[in-house]
TrEMBL record:
Lineage: Archaea, Methanobacteriati, Methanobacteriota, Stenosarchaea group, Halobacteria
Protein name from the UniProt record: Deacylase
Highest taxon in the source lineage: Archaea
Entry annotated with the keyword NAD: no
UniProt keywords, alphabetically: Hydrolase, Metal-binding, Zinc
InterPro entries noted in UniProt: ArgE/DapE_CS, Bact_exopeptidase_dim_dom, Peptidase_M20, Peptidase_M20_dimer, Peptidase_M20A
Domain Peptidase M20 dimerisation span(s) in chain numbering: 203-303
Length: 410
């Protein structure tokens, strides 16, 4: 993009300011950095340095969660100031972390190898490709005279249990003035339905996790009838959850329940008198924490167990740190700007989809109540060996985001 630095402001369309070769070089650099969640320092430094070298004035933003995880980390934040304080503010949000390196790779999982239009590596698709799209789009917008602000947030901990990096943005007020957010998750890969780019993901189910304790009565395993087997009762509870009917939403579909883990029975020859059960539940609007707890209690009560049962939701750093469901209106101005840019630059009207699971977008779309759209480069094998992102889509998404941002903030 440097060849356009001396051009008059706004003389060149934002998408024309995207340097595809620079984007792919940056993608390979970032893919080669090991950055599983809670271990993102090297990645944060690389993103900071890239922004700093271009005069984009990045800052580190401290992330701290001492009570549950003990995590201390750093987001990277940068802002382009607009000319009109009353104009909307746009957030570009992408996570720097990956899942832990998985087994099964037949090459270096951080190779950044490019072959047949694909860049390979753990996190290449989820979501270093999307993060690169946002970085180069942000650079393309930096010299323009926009009315509104653009805030770039490269965050830590999205793949971790609580989305701590983005949640810290909310806690520290960095989302207070934000009127719309773009999260560059790989849309087609994570959507409920089969989609091809260009695609806009306009909402997501939320998620809670039940932590259930079952307390029975111990006895010698030779006489199980004399005790109350907590493991057996926990299994009955798990089966009931597995068969549970959940609410349905017009665009997000049905909620879902999945028993995850049963633990109990430490003594080799005793009826287990204590067992724990973890159950994941994806929720749709209307299925609040109070509702899902009440429904779980009713389900267990109907089983008429001899064990006593305690039902709680998993501890979170704060009650508003849970992942709630959200839907962004298709007629919102930012959605229309992204749709128009997608069609103009690709020749195809973008598909619209919704996500089945949870992520940082829930903090933005539900907790902060910011209209939030996901659009990102596609690929495959997310969270698996052989993960890759399509290199041409990294630049394509950057061009769409840059043009849409300029149109919305003009």
């Amino acid at each position: 993009m440097s060849e356009h630095r001396d051009e008059p402001a706004n003389a060149i369309a934002p998408h024309e300011r995207i340097d595809a070769a620079e984007a792919i070089s940056l993608l390979q650099e970032l893919v080669r950095i090991r950055s599983p969640f809670f271990e993102e320092d090297e990645m944060a430094n690389a993103v900071y340095d890239w922004l700093d070298e271009r005069g984009l004035e990045p800052e580190y933003h401290a992330v701290s969660e001492p009570e549950i995880t003990g995590f201390e980390g750093r987001n990277v934040v940068a802002r382009i100031e607009g000319t009109d304080p009353d104009a909307p503010t746009l957030m570009l949000n992408g996570h720097m972390d990956t899942v832990q390196l998985v087994d099964g790779w037949d090459e270096d999982p951080l190779s950044g190898r490019i072959e047949d239009g694909k860049c390979y590596g753990q996190g290449a698709c989820d979501m270093k490709g999307g993060l690169v799209s946002l970085l180069v789009a942000f650079e393309a917008l930096a010299d323009l005279q926009l009315r509104g602000d653009v805030v770039l947030t490269a965050v830590v901990g999205e793949e971790g249990p609580y989305g701590l990096g983005t949640y810290q943005l909310l806690c520290d007020g960095l989302t207070d003035d934000v009127d719309g957010a773009i999260v560059a998750e790989p849309g087609p890969t994570i959507a409920q339905q089969e989609l091809e780019n260009p695609a806009l993901i306009l909402g997501s189910r939320g998620g809670v996790r039940y932590e259930i304790t079952v307390i029975g009565d111990a006895a010698h395993a030779a006489h199980p009838e004399r005790g109350t087997n907590a493991v057996v009762d926990a299994a009955r509870i798990a089966t009931a959850f597995d068969e549970m009917q959940c609410a349905t939403h017009p665009v997000l579909g049905s909620g879902s329940v999945c028993p995850l883990e049963i633990r109990g029975g430490d003594d080799p020859l005793s009826v287990p008198d204590r067992c724990s059960l973890a159950v994941n539940r994806h929720v749709v609007p209307g299925e609040t924490e109070a509702v899902v707890l009440e429904q779980a209690s009713a389900l267990v009560s109907e089983l008429d167990l001899d064990s006593s049962v305690e039902i709680e939701l998993r501890d979170v750093p704060s009650e508003d740190a849970r992942f709630g469901p959200y839907v962004t209106n298709e007629e919102h101005g930012l959605v229309r700007a992204l749709a128009d840019s997608s069609e103009r630059l690709t020749g195809a009207e973008p598909a619209v989809g919704y996500f089945s699971s949870i992520g940082d977008f829930n903090h933005l779309g539900h907790t902060a109540k910011i209209p939030t759209i996901m659009i990102g480069p596609d690929g495959d094998n997310v969270h698996r060996s052989g993960e890759y992102v399509y290199t041409d889509e990294v630049g394509a998404v950057a061009r769409i985001v840059a043009d849409a941002a300029a149109a919305w903030l003009k």
